[in-house]
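Case study B.
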Amino acid sequence: KAGVTQTPRYLIKTRGQQVTLSCSPISGHRSVSWYQQTPGQGLQFLFEYFSETQRNKGNFPGRFSGRQFSNSRSEMNVSTLELGDSALYLCASRRQGNEKLFFGSGTQLSVL
Amino acid sequence: GESVGLHLPTLSVQEGDNSIINCAYSNSASDYFIWYKQESGKGPQFIIDIRSNMDKRQGQRVTVLLNKTVKHLSLQIAATQPGDSAVYFCAENPTDKLIFGTGTRLQVFP
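Model:
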């Protein structure tokens, strides 16, 4: 069974631009979560989607948004990029809540 | 934020020794706990989990201990190997979202 797949692996953007990251969960997993990882803040929860509905949301500004499609694939979007948005963005999936998450390798976003 | 990043503590152990990585969790309502291992350039990888109705669980070379009284979790790695070098995170599940600790870097030297 294939693991969680994230694309692209690396991304370089400039301030003010927007970016869309993609995540394909493990087959059969209906829950997709997104995390931001930085050296200074560790792993911070962004949001979780389950069956196309946002179920949980972290403490991030509205510039960070996401969605989930009927095939459970998910995208997250960051608009009006800031230098501080440079981070590793991790996607994780699980069958349902209160189970372990399986992570992808992440998308490394650099904002210049 | 929910996961406050500080200076990453480091544990240095000699190959073949046992390692113990500790974690203090914050929410008394948490009933599910997970340990993850993250190697450079990769996403976190599941190691072992434990639910609050247990105080110990063993896997292959790893043991997780849970002390709910003092809200403490530990990961024991037996016969530590160079391949165990990584950052280790504990995570708690007070609601449906996982909240991660700051992580501990494990360095294994020969």
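Chain A has no helices and eleven strands. The remaining cases will be described in the next quarterly update.
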